[in-house]
Amino acid sequence: MISINNIYYRYEQEGIDALCGVSLEIQEGEHLSLIGPNGCGKTTLIQHLNALILPRQGKVIIDGLNTSDTENHIQIRSRVGMVFQNPENQIIGMTVEEDVAFGPENLQLPTAAIKERVAEALERVGILELAKRNVEHLSGGEKRLVAIAGVLAMRPRYIAFDEPTAFLDPAAAKRILKIIDKLNTENVGIIHITHNMDEAAMASRVVVINEGRVSMEGDPQDIFGKVDLLQEMGMQLPQVTELLIRLKLDGFPVRTDIVAMEDATEQIKLLVKTR
Asked: How far apart are CA 36 and CA 17, in angstroms?
């Protein structure tokens, strides 16, 4: 379990209080979406999860390991993987396989074990054929997959994704989301920052961050049912929810607390039958 206990963080040079007393628990195998306005503290929060930054006040405990203890950092970073919004910020190797091997090499694993982990990670994201390719020659979507493979080679219990589908075409984004869903079915805890409310609705729990604090948390139906509060923060709704709200405003008797396309389809089918 990840336990975040009343943490504060301030960017001193900018004079910005990024986190102001955030407390949150994340279970292994959970799929959690973090949403909120730009600059609200989402990225700062997930960077605390593998000790990239440390809280000015409060504690972050990863499976019993305190991130403030530097002796724990190797274990913590093997348990919590991080996929940045820009994959080039974490890709180090010249070739795909060199990059994916970087994490296991830092764990000082035997060569045979490193090769096994690299092949396994590349296969899990479906890019085994790219192993010898120069990273510079890859597309943006392929680089994102390399970054995910590099994290998987560490065999983490949790992975934090920061806008993993940003700037990708629909096909590449769908591929990334399918990988995230599969990882979660394999009991990998997912922490997913997104501005795409349809993606957020795929999670089992949604946490809304605003001005460095946890503003709301609950299941997607609960969160996206609070339309006025979300709109006050300048946030959108899932497209399905927006559609049903418009139908409701036009006088159609539909539920508006629906976030899944399948459920919305059933609502519309029922509406057609009764008219």
From this structure: 16
Across the range 150-168, mean pLDDT stands at 96
Q: How far apart are CA 259 and CA 239, in angstroms?
A: 8
Quote the tokens at residue 241: 């929810």
Structure tokens at 117: 């982990």
In the prediction, which pLDDT does 142 show?
95
Close Cβ partners of 38 (under 8 Å, ≥ 6 residues apart):
none
pLDDT in tens, 74-118: 999 999 999 999 998 899 989 999 999 999 998 899 999 999 999
Burial tier of 112 (Cβ tally within 10 Å: 0-12, 13-18, 19+): exposed
User: How many helices, marked H, and strands, marked E, lie in the chain?
Assistant: 11, 10
This prediction's pTM:
0.91
The strand pair at 213-218 and 205-210 is best described as: antiparallel
Helical packing angle, 111-124 and 96-106, nearest 10°: 130
Collapsing DSSP to helix, strand or coil, 90 comes out as: coil
